Amino acid sequence: MASLSDKITILKGIGPAKAKLFEKLGIYTLQDLICHFPRGYEDRSKLVTIAQLEVGQSCCFRATVMTTPRSHHIRKGLDLTKVRVADHTGRLDLTFFNNRTAAQRLVYGREYIFCGALSGDYMGYGMTNPVFEEVDAPPVITRRILPVYALTAGLNNAAVLRAVDQALAVCDPPAEVLPREVLESYRLLPACRAYQAIHRPASREEAREALRRLVFEEFFVFSAGLALMRADRARKKTAPYTHTDLTAFYQALPFRLTAAQDRAIGQIRADMERGVPMERLVQGDVGSGKTMVAAAAAYLAARNGRQAALMAPTEILAEQHFQSLSRLFQPLGLQVSLLTGSMTDKQKKALRQQIAEGRTDLVVGTHALITDTTVFHRLGLVIADEQHRFGVAQRSRLLAKGADPHMLVMSATPIPRTLALIMYGDLDVSVLDELPPGRQKVDTFLVDERYRARINAFIRKQVAAGRQCFVVCPAVEQTDGLDIRSAEVWADTLRQTVFPDLRVALLHGQMKGQQKEQIMASFAAGEADILVATTVIEVGVDVPNATLMVIEDADRFGLSQLHQLRGRVGRGQHKSYCILITRSRDGQTIQRLKALCATNDGFQIAEEDLKLRGPGDFFGSRQSGLPAFRVADLSLDMQTLRQAQEAAAAWIDRSGTAETPEAEALRDRIGILFRRARGTIN
User: Fold this and answer.
1) DSSP 3-state assignment of 564?
2) In order of start, what are the domains of the chain with their CATH numbers?
3) Which member of 36, 215, 258, 438 lies 3.0 to 4.6 Å from 632 by CB, making a disulfide possible if both were Cys?
């Protein structure tokens, strides 16, 4: 017997070249292959007669070859082979294009099982490129519920089928990871049967039961992993903070905090007083005041003799945090420093010496914070802003610079509760569900191309009043076959034709980091009237003077992403607007975009987005550090997710740990899942 860890090249017919194709699907070992689950099924288990074939319907039938296959070379790149077959109900002509080898395997007088779709009309019927196998051969592509797999160029379904069947024949399926009581309570198939049935179902019902079991398994492993992480965190100890009076901090604020901010700060203070490292997410809509909550946490760290580090995804955002927090903390006697990659080596060296000697209380920076040369004197708090822009490994490297420091992560992307169960299951969550007084409501309008002249006139009106405008496009450059606005082409059009008298700048993600920072800083300083950009401005851009957001081809974005873009305006004292432009006439698309016009509540929009388009890529790019589920679908399997979470929590409560011989397979699977999420294994 082979081992699940063996490379797929031990299978017949898979050499180095074909293995490279499988690698594109993430398949390296026999376990990867067995866990490459079908994306659907085609029922080929029933045989019909030739007379029962229906046009356009894929069917299987048994027939005898009545003529010797004859091939003709029609023109360069096109061969045609014809053969006639028959059963007791009729005859049928089969045509094979560019498949002479397969067609000539048909032997005159022999019976085969064919599968294909009938085509034609009353003038004549036929079938093109049917698949077939001998009557006495084991059913591989006919006479079965046929799994349909995700593929890549050069690798067809039959090749994957053959490989999976071989793998199941030469090695045992993955070991059972679900406890016996869970299998019995939820009436789940055992692993040995489920892994066979998902690839070789005897019926549709068996395929459904196998799928339910494997979805449950994925969620159970993930949930158990998170529960163990929580349990491990609860066992860690750190010195409890004893100086937690925030009176001076509140007196230094130029405004009153919202009740939601007060509640979140109270939760953070309680965490820090417990003597266990805090791992908390502060989740709030655009403008809900997450930075002030983080500032309170940094103040508590400083009051207890610890340093804090705030990591931002861009230099622009780091600079903004540095400016606002410096103004806040200076009267309180706290030192705030800024560390970014664009600083000179001399500046970075001097600043790193201050940090190492403990002469700064809060360090705001970018990825420069996690380099080996940045050493902290006594790091007690790590804050990650726009946390979905950082991978787990990056946060871990910053955390490793202290002795079990507290961690606070912030996200301005509202997540529906159902999705948050997966994304943040290992964190305590504080939600800022109200906006500070005076925060502008952005009026949002949905229009089509008929309004173009009025939009251009409105842009001119805003610029004439001294304001600035964002114009967002879904693509950087023009792509053949896609009728969408590109930032490069549209910026040129605005400069040369529409607004030749205005200052138009261009910003997109393919530019180098320093160039992007310079363009954004220039726009923030008022040196351009219009900034044409891609979604690179989605996060952390604060230009209070910008009052208009125009989004081209808005139907190309998810609602949550549109809401984030809209949040770039309305950040100052002037009335602000968002205009969504679409050329789509699809009813569901229009309904989806109108949902954004109806509300500024990011959590309500996120729920609507999840409902309309599924979880998919909720952030536009997949959250770094999260396991990718092989078979589970969050838009379909939420009930199974809740059951698996309940089962995992109950099992952890009963066993207290996974350190038992019975849980060895589960421990191994959890380790693989989270190492794969961190990118440390294939």
Assistant:
1) helix
2) 1-41+157-172 (no CATH), 46-143 (2.40.50.140), 276-432 (3.40.50.300), 443-599 (3.40.50.300)
3) 215
Q: Span 316-334, mean pLDDT?
A: 90
- Residue in this structure with the two tokens 């045509």, named with its chain if needed: 95
Angle between helices 157-170 and 191-199 (to 10 degrees): 150
Residues whose CB falls within 8 Å of the CB of residue 353, separated by 6 or more in sequence, listed in order: none
Q: How many CB atoms lie within 10 A of CB 166?
A: 19
The pLDDT assigned to 327 comes to: 93
The helix (run of H) or strand (run of E) holding residue 145 is strand 145-148
- Residue 270 pLDDT greater than 70, yes or no: yes
Name the DSSP letter for residue 479: -
What's the pTM value of the predicted model, to 2 decimals? 0.66
* E-strand stretches of 10-137: 40-43, 47-48, 58-65, 70-75, 78-87, 90-97, 111-121, 124-128, 131-134
What average pLDDT does range 494-499 have in this prediction?
A: 95
pLDDT score at 573: 86
- Do strands 279-284 and 307-311 pair parallel, antiparallel, or not at all (unpaired)? unpaired
- What is the pLDDT confidence band of residue 656, given thresholds at 50, 70 and 90? low
pLDDT exceeds cutoff 90 at 640: no
